[in-house]
Design a protein that fits this description.
The complex is a heterodimer of chains A (169) and B (523). By secondary structure, chain A is α/β, with parallel strands linked by helices. Chain A has 6 helices and 5 strands. A 5-stranded parallel beta sheet of chain A has the order 2-1-3-4-5, with helices on both faces. In chain A, strand 1, helix 3 and strand 2 form a beta-alpha-beta unit. In chain A, helix 2 packs across helix 6 and helix 3 packs across helix 6. In chain A, 46% of the residues are buried. Chain B is globular. By secondary structure, chain B is an alpha+beta fold. In chain B, the strands form 5 sheets. Chain B has a 5-stranded mixed beta sheet with strand order 1-3-6-5-4. A 4-stranded mixed beta sheet of chain B has the order 2-14-15-16. In chain B, strands 9-10-11 form a 3-stranded antiparallel beta sheet. In chain B, 40% of the residues lie in helices and 17% in strands. The chains are: A alpha/beta (169), B alpha+beta (523). Chains A and B meet through helix 1, strand 1 and helix 3 of A and helix 4, helix 8 and helix 9 of B.
């Protein structure tokens, strides 16, 4: 136990302000965002992530958003296990033919109003997989999409910025 | 002549014909008559070899039918056995009865190529779903990749159990966390798992077919996205296979830089896994400690290699990134600081009885079972099998900087954590040695196109385990086939067995301790 406490004190608080280049943007959006989240989401934005055929690269970065350094919960962002509690669907990957039904069902299980965000190049335009017998390409080919976050994969800062934008608009 | 080859010649005499199409360092390609394909498998079984992969190739462009291939390994020796199968009678004898791992390979070959493993105990579709038209065989040349398949009615026959108190728990494809999709079907009684059956294919994106529409040079971007968390190892293995086929030798510095990226990928992923395993047994402290270290690690990747996961840095013929003196110094400094920090976390992991209580004897996979199922990588090593393709198939710098392979006999979650801990330590040592001796020279050589009908194979130890690529050039030297075998295709079989006798609530930690890829499995 002592070792754990030592390590906790040694580590200190690692959560950091976002890199300076986005700091200004955060401040700018922040005020609008806070108001938006208060009005629309009662101070907490709940996200359900859906991998619709991704290579798992985008998921790594979504995980990273939750690590102690980015700590997205401090912005009121929370990931939920059930689409029924979700305000937002964060969908990655080109939609594989074998995930089409599951994605549509997850989308249907999410209460309205909801925001659907396509994450990563594949989700935005099909990426290198494109459209084929096994891949239906971009997310908007299957369910309506409200916002896009391109990148292969988009890093945590880009993700946060994209989510903030999706809410602000 | 390698020993496996010798064994085959002794057993099958003139029926085993050595072909010269396969380019790789000492991997013989042996053709046997179709009816002796399982006889060859039996010989390999007696020679203590393991099945590495089994696959089919549409070879109609050469005026033949299908080629059925099986790759075997024992120690440092690899061998590929193949047989020709005519178009109008696409059957071959199953090898599932000799090598259980073949049952999924053969289901996949049957589903996607339409070749029939005669005598196979299980021919339910795999990767292909029951709502695909039965005659949709996407890997055949006659199948247009742009085909929009109609959905047909069909039902998957699950393994079911009956009896008083037995019930079924279906899980997935959309799981509770931020995870890839797959389906797990439990038969349970109370909390005890009686049986687990996996079904995958949800993230099948038609990758192997997609390769055939790309050039050899462009293919590497696709290989880097077979499994995003293993992008370095996959692109590295693809390049090695393609280079072997084309007879292209990358400069030494490029090979060393590839190895440096490979070891960094291993450390970052192992760190994430150790943290996530602790998190699944409610020890959030180590989870946050590990993920913080991982984040620092990928940030260094970005600084030195311009990408957090080092995607698209490896290309046929070499690499597209370099390390200057400052970069080397910075990385060495990072490794020193990380190493001290990491050891403190290891002590905490080791000294925590409540943690130990959850991870010891949980999800146990015995050595015998691991061997029978053909496990590779971390799963094999945590079950007492001394396997590592960096040593079995050494490519510079692993021929002179030889990795020590940690082996844990227990086969439980704890053993899989310790294998990862020891591998991080070993990767740190390898990295230091590579950085201090990094040879000077070019980063890239011109990639020459392969000769028609040449093929190549490569084996790379990714962080999960042995990755295999087999590539085959067509009549004009174009991509005729690119076979991808992620370690997950084998190791998922181990998870089904490891959960027996465990309780349903322990499944997440068992699964996390394996942490196999869905995308790499489904391709």
């Amino acid at each position: 136990m002592l070792r754990i406490l030592h390590q906790i004190f040694r580590t200190g608080l690692v959560t950091e302000p976002l890199p300076t280049e986005v700091e200004r943007e955060i401040v700018e959006i922040g005020a609008r965002l806070e108001e938006n989240i208060r009005k629309k989401f009662y101070r907490s934005l709940t996200i359900r992530q859906v991998d619709a055929g991704s290579c798992n690269g985008c998921e790594l970065e979504i995980h990273a958003m939750n690590n102690a350094i980015y700590n997205c919960e401090r912005f009121g962002i929370h990931f939920t296990a059930s689409p029924r509690f979700a305000d937002m669907l964060l969908v990655s990957g080109p939609v594989s033919v074998n995930m089409e039904i599951a994605l549509k069902r997850t989308c249907a299980a999410t209460p309205n109003p909801k925001i659907v965000v396509a994450v990563g190049d594949c989700a935005c335009d099909g990426g290198i997989f494109g459209e084929s017998y096994a891949s239906l390409g971009r997310i908007s080919n299957v369910i309506p999409v409200d916002a896009h976050i391109p990148g292969c994969p988009p890093n945590p800062v880009v993700l946060l910025r994209g989510i903030l934008r999706a809410i602000g608009e | 002549m390698n020993a496996l080859h010798e064994r085959l010649v002794t057993q099958l005499a003139t029926d085993a014909v050595l072909l010269d199409g396969l380019r790789a360092v000492d991997v013989p390609l042996i053709r046997v008559p179709r009816e002796l394909f399982n006889e060859a498998a039996r010989t390999m079984k007696y020679a203590e070899a393991r099945l590495v992969a089994e696959w089919a190739s549409d070879e109609t462009c050469f005026g033949r039918g299908f080629g059925i291939y099986a790759c075997y390994n024992n120690g440092t020796e690899y061998l590929v056995v193949m047989c020709d199968v005519p178009l109008d009678d696409a059957t071959f004898p199953t090898i599932t009865r000799k090598f259980p791992a073949a049952y999924r390979f053969e289901r996949q070959m049957h589903s996607l190529m339409g070749v029939i493993p005669a005598g196979s105990p299980d021919l339910r579709p795999w990767i292909k779903f029951e709502d695909w038209p039965e005659d949709a065989w996407p890997l055949r040349k006659t199948f247009d990749p742009r085909t929009r398949m109609p959905r047909v009615p069909g039902e998957y026959r699950w393994i079911r159990m009956e009896g008083e108190g037995v019930y079924e728990i279906p899980v997935g494809p959309v799981h509770a966390g931020i995870i890839e999709p797959g389906h797990f079907r439990f038969q349970a009684m109370g909390e005890d798992i009686l049986n687990l059956e996996e079904r995958f294919g949800y993230v099948h994106k038609g990758i192997e077919k997609r390769f055939e529409a790309l050039s050899w040079e462009d293919g590497v971007r696709l290989a880097g996205r077979v499994s995003g968390d293993t992008t370095v190892a996959h692109s590295c293995c693809y390049c090695q296979a393609v280079e072997a086929m084309a007879g292209c030798v990358p400069p030494e510095r490029a090979l060393w830089l590839r190895a440096i990226m490979l070891e960094r990928e291993r450390i970052a992923n192992h760190l994430g896994d150790i943290g996530a395993i602790c998190n699944d047994v409610a020890f959030a402290f180590l989870f946050f400690q590990c993920t913080t270290r991982k984040e620092h690690f990928v940030r260094t990747n970005f600084k030195l290699f311009q990408h957090r996961f080092m995607m698209d840095k490896i290309v046929p013929g070499g690499v597209t990134t370099d390390l200057n003196e400052d970069g080397i110094v910075a990385m060495l400094r990072e490794l020193d600081a990380f190493s001290r920090d990491f050891e403190r976390l290891v002590v905490i992991y080791d000294n925590n009885p409540s943690l130990e209580d959850r991870v010891k004897e949980t999800g146990r996979l015995s050595t015998e079972l691991a061997k029978d199922l053909g496990m590779v990588g971390i799963v094999a090593r945590a079950s007492g099998l001394d396997l590592d393709s960096r040593r079995q198939y050494p490519v510079p710098p692993y021929d002179i900087i030889i990795p020590k392979v940690p082996v844990q006999p227990a086969g439980d979650v704890n053993a899989r954590v310790w294998v990862r801990i020891d591998e991080i330590r070993e990767s740190l040592r390898l990295l230091r040695e590579m950085l201090e001796n990094l040879p000077l020279g070019e980063l890239r050589t011109t990639f020459v196109q392969p000769e028609p009908s040449a093929s190549g194979i490569a084996f790379v130890e990714g962080w999960r385990g042995e990755i295999v690529y087999w590539v085959q050039a067509g009549k004009a030297g174009e991509v005729n086939r690119c076979m991808v075998r992620d370690p997950s295709s084998l190791n998922w079989l181990g998870l089904e067995q490891a959960v027996h006798g465990n309780i349903v609530p322990d499944f997440p930690v068992c699964n996390k301790s394996f942490n196999q890829s869905y995308s790499g499995n489904d391709v």
